[in-house]
Design brief:
Elements (H helix, E strand, L loop, with lengths): L1 H13 L2 H19 L4 H15 L4 H26 L10 H46 L5 H13 L9 H15 L2 E2 L6 E2 L13 H19 L18 H6 L1 H16 L4 H16 L12 H16 L1 H7 L5 H12 L8 H4 L1 H22 L3 H5 L6 H20 L2 H19 L5 H23 L11 H20 L16
Antiparallel strand pairs: 1-2
Helix pairs in contact: 1-16, 2-3, 2-4, 2-16, 3-4, 3-8, 3-14, 3-18, 4-5, 4-12, 4-14, 4-16, 5-10, 5-12, 5-13, 5-16, 6-20, 6-21, 7-20, 8-18, 8-19, 10-11, 10-12, 11-12, 14-20, 18-19
């Protein structure tokens, strides 16, 4: 009954003309961003965040717009994977294994429609899972004290690399870099300046958005420049769009299994959609006796990763909304947006700002149907996006980034700092050090420090207080396992080879 009442509240927010229009616009923009190779949901959301402030949107509207972009980009990532053999984003990488071979067989349209339906099944069911699981987890979070939150933040950092990371050490380096950046500014407890170098502009610390837009959007600009702005071209012929009912029916259980796997992978802090896609594909492959079928254009090899990564995208919203800990890189960007709007995600959010949470959930339920329409009957329109030359895309990304950031602060120093983060992101990209842990360190570093200080004050400096409850002990154990396990499991859970694929993210 309570859920029904909350959904009524949510739909009263979602069905307002402004909110509905923003959701549709976000779906369209997200699908376009997702279809472009290399951008992905994290970059797309980061690039468009300044737009939310330029339009002077309130918290609910801004979150609806950005989350719709997030979902849209997850849907759109499969388009370039199938037609170009180049993943639109990392989670869509597994789709290339069977998507492109199926397209080469003359069934590109069937592959696009099947992947679109699979994305819908995964995302829609994950949104329902978010609706059911989030309130329960929010109530559990009321038992969290400073020691538990410190352990929770540690869990997020330790699991951020995960099985999909190439190197746990590089993820750890990125986290430490982010934590170091989060310490810049005036210490709230002592009033002493830290790592400012005497620069007055740094006394308030480093702005989340400046770092995010720099590390994602500006870095992509440098990557485009390095690649000499080479144009895209569709590698296969797209025939008449029709619905392959037989393929959809044959993969119905595949979609459901992948949705369950992907959703719980997304709920794990730091795991994200990449792990959801990978586990969904590999678990489905393990059920097939003749494993040689996968990688040759098998419909299950398309349905499983698409349902898995979109379910993980919905699952990643659960820890963000209930605990204030992002479940993926994109939700880390969304978390920064909420914090900038003076909204603190966590268990109190459901009681203090129910219109934000349930308005978002109701909007996502509607957005999934919008995305199904965009990505099935209208998918041909978005395939044209792949032919947009980088020479046109590059100035647009640069304009949105610089104008957006300057409109927020009016400070030229922020523009220089954003460019500096862009250079840093480019260097990290060349060293194959992930940027997401840096962002997470900047976002959560201050909160982690405050939780540690509060725990020490409550315990009169007794560090064993950090292990004083079953919840904190469980989180410490989970953090240790989350960091160590991938080191041993990576050799057993190897990603399949991608022959002939030149894709560097």
């Amino acid at each position: 009954m309570e859920i029904i009442e909350n959904l009524i509240l949510g739909f009263s927010v979602a069905l307002t003309p402004t909110t509905l229009s923003l959701a549709i616009a976000g779906c369209v923009l997200g699908t376009i961003i997702g279809a472009l190779p290399g951008l992905g949901p994290s970059n797309g959301v980061a690039i468009l965040i300044p737009l939310a402030f330029t339009l002077e949107l309130d918290a609910t509207q801004a979150l609806v717009l950005m989350t719709s972009v997030y979902y849209g980009a997850m849907y759109g990532g499969r388009i370039s994977s199938i037609l170009l053999n180049i993943p639109g984003d990392e989670p869509a990488m597994m789709t290339t294994l069977d998507g492109y071979p199926m397209a080469k067989k003359g069934r590109a349209a069937d592959a696009l429609v099947l992947s679109g339906v699979s994305s819908f099944v995964g995302a829609f069911l994950a949104t329902i899972g978010l609706m059911l699981l989030a309130p329960i987890l929010a109530r559990v979070a009321f038992y969290f004290g400073p020691a538990e939150y410190f352990a929770l933040y540690l869990l997020a950092f330790c699991t951020l690399g995960g099985i999909g990371a190439e190197n746990q050490a590089k993820s750890a380096i990125a986290v430490c870099l982010g934590l170091g950046i989060s310490m810049i500014g005036v210490d709230n407890s002592t009033g002493m300046t830290r790592f400012t170098g005497g620069n007055l502009h740094l006394y308030d610390g480093v702005d989340f958005l400046v770092a995010i837009v720099g590390l994602f959007a500006v870095t992509e600009i440098f990557v485009f420049i390095e690649s000499r702005g080479r144009d895209s071209a569709i590698g296969v012929k797209l025939g008449k769009i029709s619905i392959p009912f037989k393929d959809i029916f044959d993969t119905r259980w595949t979609m459901l299994r992948a949705t369950v796997v992907g959703f719980f992978a997304g709920v794990l802090p730091g795991a994200g959609a990449s792990l959801g896609s990978f586990l969904a594909y590999m678990s489905e492959k393990s059920l097939e006796k003749n494993k040689d079928k996968f990688g040759t254009g098998d419909v299950r090899g398309i349905a499983a990763p698409e349902a898995g990564n979109n379910a993980a995208a919905g699952g990643a919203l659960v820890p963000m909304l209930t605990l204030g800990v992002p479940g993926s890189g994109t939700t880390a960007v969304l978390l920064a947006l909420l914090m900038t709007l003076n909204i603190t995600p966590g268990p109190l959010l459901f009681n203090e700002r129910p219109e934000v949470v349930w308005g978002l959930i109701a909007t996502l339920l509607i957005a999934n149907f919008v995305l199904l329409i965009l990505n099935v009957p209208l998918v041909r329109l978005f395939t044209k996006i792949l032919q947009v030359p980088a020479s046109i895309l590059l100035p647009g990304v640069a304009m949105i980034s610089f104008v957006g950031i300057y409109s927020l602060s009016g400070s030229h120093f922020d523009l220089l700092l954003m460019t500096g983060f862009g250079v840093l992101g480019f260097i990290l990209r060349k060293l194959k050090i992930p940027a997401v842990p840096v962002i997470l360190g900047i976002l959560l570093g201050g909160h982690m420090e405050v939780s540690l200080r509060r725990a020490m004050v409550l315990s009169d400096g007794n560090w064993t207080y950090l292990f004083d409850s079953y919840i904190s002990i469980g989180l410490w154990i989970a953090a240790f396992i989350g960091f160590v396990a991938p080191i041993f499991l990576r050799s057993y859970l190897k990603k399949p080879d991608f022959p002939g694929q030149e894709y560097d993210r």
